UniProtKB/TrEMBL annotation:
This is Alpha/beta fold hydrolase. SUPFAM superfamilies: alpha/beta-Hydrolases. Residues 34-265 form the AB hydrolase-1 domain. It comes from Paractinoplanes aksuensis. One of its GO terms (molecular function) is hydrolase activity. Keywords: Hydrolase.
Length: 283
């Protein structure tokens, strides 16, 4: 299996959209209610290639490179959550989406949840896949910061491979194709120049002022699905349980033998779960 064989069954387009002045890379496929996939810190839209096809059979799927990530534009300032939210809303406006189902992994879940709190009229439902943003754990923050900087600082592909494998319970899921995609992105000149801005949420003062609080999560009224890997290296199960308790009516699913990318590592479990949730959310 490869990215191309994952995507080939259905037509798709890969293009750029002007989202509030930010050139934004987007992969689109399918038709129906819009579902937008948001990746994690230092990630890119290829995180969802195992999910796009099955979802595009029923929905209009959008997977984007978030602000400052992948091949999307990189304004020269630190990226805090309100700026990610603005970029998401600018993208929705640019492509004519009034209300979207959001699937957010890690940072993407943090951004999706904050958007649901601050702009509830734009979010139809919310999936939080190993979502970040509820705690500030210095050890985890240092792990994210150092592993990313090391991979970006030199052209040694092994460091990129280690960074990607860090996300997975089974390293076989960090395919060489994904390693190559990420290595190329990590060594684009604008990505290298932008690394401090991209990692700003790993600084304690900045992270703390952006955290999702229980009171904020209690304001989420949209249908919410929380998916967590029991071997997630960036957050323990109690974080997921706390989100579940804070978001009334939310659904919590724990995946065994799964790290930080449940949608990728356990696509055969995740895709039908997500589609069932979306069908109920559309109700």
């Amino acid at each position: 299996m490869s990215i191309w064989t994952d995507l080939s069954p259905l037509p798709f387009s890969l293009s750029y959209v002007d989202a509030g002045g930010v050139k934004t890379r987007t992969l689109r496929a399918g038709a129906g209610a819009p579902v937008v996939f948001l990746h994690g810190t230092s990630g890119h839209l290829e995180a969802f290639t195992r999910n796009i096809g099955p979802h595009a059979e029923h929905y209009e799927v959008h997977a984007i490179d978030m602000l400052g990530h992948g091949y999307t534009g990189k304004p020269n300032h630190p990226y805090e959550i309100p700026l990610y939210v603005k970029h998401l809303l600018d993208y929705l406006d640019a492509v004519g989406i009034e209300k979207a189902h959001i699937v957010g992994e890690s940072l993407g879940g943090w951004v999706g949840a904050r958007t649901a709190v601050d702009h509830p009229d734009r979010i139809a439902s919310l999936q939080l896949l190993c979502a970040g943003g509820t705690v500030a754990n210095p050890e985890v923050m240092q792990r994210i910061d150092s592993s990313t900087r090391q991979a970006v600082a030199t052209d040694d592909v092994e460091l990129t491979r280690k960074r990607l494998r860090l996300l997975m319970a089974d390293p076989v899921n960090a395919t060489e194709e994904l390693v190559d995609v990420r290595h190329r992105i990590y060594h684009e000149p604008d990505f290298v120049a932008n690394i401090d801005n991209l990692l700003s949420l790993q600084k304690m003062e900045i992270r703390q002022r952006n955290l999702l609080t229980p009171a904020q999560m209690a304001k989420i009224t949209q249908p919410a699905l929380i998916v967590w890997g029991r071997k997630n290296p960036f957050g323990d199960v109690p974080e997921a349980q706390a989100m579940h308790e804070a978001i009334a009516g939310s659904q919590l699913e724990l995946f065994e033998e799964t790290g930080h990318w449940p949608q990728h590592e356990q696509a055969a479990l995740y895709n039908p779960l997500s589609l069932e949730f979306l069908a109920k959310a559309a109700g």
